[in-house]
């Protein structure tokens, strides 16, 4: 994955917490309204949950494309790193037991869905997401010939960061950009919402070219990732992807809409999304095709390595197994719905 550098993250403006709390409250209030009209019905296509969670995934075992100090294990060799707890929770983790020489590669996992998608309503419930120095966790979708076919980063951050980042990456097809002022069905509050999403714009050019692979990104609020997210019991990330939009929402554990809990999701009632890309400024159908779902935990590499601030070098810190005590991603379920 090709991402914004830590330097760009560090330049985020100091934002008014009251302003964003008001926005988030409005989003959460909208999501709980019982009288929202349903425009589209969605039918469950795929669900990954419980003791059979790993049946429909491939385990990636090649060199890390992001140049990390990581050894991705096969399913046979990852019995201690990828498993399902008795309560049905699926766990992906980094080895926190073995000694690794400074600069060596530590064992981890990267799984890719066998099924591919050209859109849909994706809902993922995480109890916990990996965090810790040198750690680079992600939940994303990607086409077969990066950057052509596109990439959608739904959950991604590095080290001990507490802010999630949503990013699109595209090839030359689609002429894809992020337009914060794009019209959308979510701008329905008489203009008090200044843009079509709640998050903070980090970059507007989605296309990867000439070594610039930052993508077009939106950052979430403080507490949307890492330790604060985990302390709150995790939550749900949802993505609606069709030819007109890619919209992303996050719901804290105590704010998950009832329609999601009932298995009858209704995005029309979820309020303003955290991130939104419109077909007005991106040919979504051309830019995003044949995506697999990917979940992985990398170590150091292009982003976590350059952003590492834990003392010494990132690659040397790989030898400290204690850095990985919280490098666990715990999943309740991942569901994909399609329009009925």
Automatic annotation (TrEMBL):
| Domain annotation GH16: ranges | 40-340
Q: Pfam families in the record, alphabetically?
A: GH16_XgeA (PF26113)
Signal peptide range equals: 1-18
Chain segments annotated as transmembrane: none
Entry GO MF terms: hydrolase activity, hydrolyzing O-glycosyl compounds
Question: A single GO BP annotation from the record?
Answer: glucan catabolic process
Q: Which domain of life is it from?
A: Eukaryota
Alphabetical UniProt keywords: Hydrolase, Signal
Q: Keyword check for Nucleotide-binding, yes or no.
A: no
Q: Which PANTHER family would you find in this protein's record?
A: GLYCOSIDASE C21B10.07-RELATED (PTHR10963:SF24), GLYCOSYL HYDROLASE-RELATED (PTHR10963)
**Name the record gives this protein:** Glycoside hydrolase family 16 protein
Q: Which organism is it from?
A: Thelephora terrestris
Lineage, please?
Eukaryota, Fungi, Dikarya, Basidiomycota, Agaricomycotina
């Amino acid at each position: 994955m090709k991402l914004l550098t830590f330097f760009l993250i560090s330049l985020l403006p100091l934002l008014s917490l009251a302003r964003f709390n008001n926005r988030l409250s409005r989003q959460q209030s909208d999501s709980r309204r019982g009288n929202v009209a349903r425009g589209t019905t969605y039918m469950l296509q795929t669900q990954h949950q419980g003791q059979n969670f790993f049946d429909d995934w491939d385990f990636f075992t090649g060199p890390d494309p992001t140049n990390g100090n990581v050894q991705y294990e096969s399913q046979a060799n990852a019995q201690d790193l990828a498993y399902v707890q008795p309560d049905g929770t699926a766990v992906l983790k980094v080895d926190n037991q073995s000694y690794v020489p400074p600069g060596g590669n530590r064992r981890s996992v990267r799984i890719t869905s066998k099924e591919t998608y050209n859109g849909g309503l994706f809902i993922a419930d995480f109890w916990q997401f990996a965090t810790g120095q040198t750690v680079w966790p992600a939940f994303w979708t990607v086409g077969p010939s990066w950057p052509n076919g596109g990439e959608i980063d739904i959950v991604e951050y590095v080290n001990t960061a507490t802010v999630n980042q949503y990013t699109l990456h595209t090839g030359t097809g689609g002429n894809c950009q992020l337009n914060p002022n794009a019209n959308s069905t979510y701008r329905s509050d008489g203009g008090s919402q200044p843009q079509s999403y709640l998050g903070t714009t980090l970059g507007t050019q989605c296309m990867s070219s000439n070594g610039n692979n930052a993508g077009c990104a939106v950052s979430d609020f403080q507490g949307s990732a890492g330790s604060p997210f985990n302390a709150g019991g995790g939550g749900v990330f949802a993505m609606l992807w069709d030819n007109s939009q890619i919209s992303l929402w996050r719901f804290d554990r105590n704010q998950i809409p009832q329609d999601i809990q009932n298995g009858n999701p209704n995005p029309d009632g979820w309020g303003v999304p955290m991130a939104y890309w419109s077909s007005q400024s991106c040919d979504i159908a051309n830019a995003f095709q044949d995506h697999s779902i990917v979940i992985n935990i990398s170590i150091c590499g292009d982003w976590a390595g350059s952003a590492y601030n834990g003392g010494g070098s990132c690659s040397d810190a790989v030898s400290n197994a204690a850095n990985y005590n919280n490098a666990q991603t715990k999943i309740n379920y991942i569901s994909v719905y399609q329009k009925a």
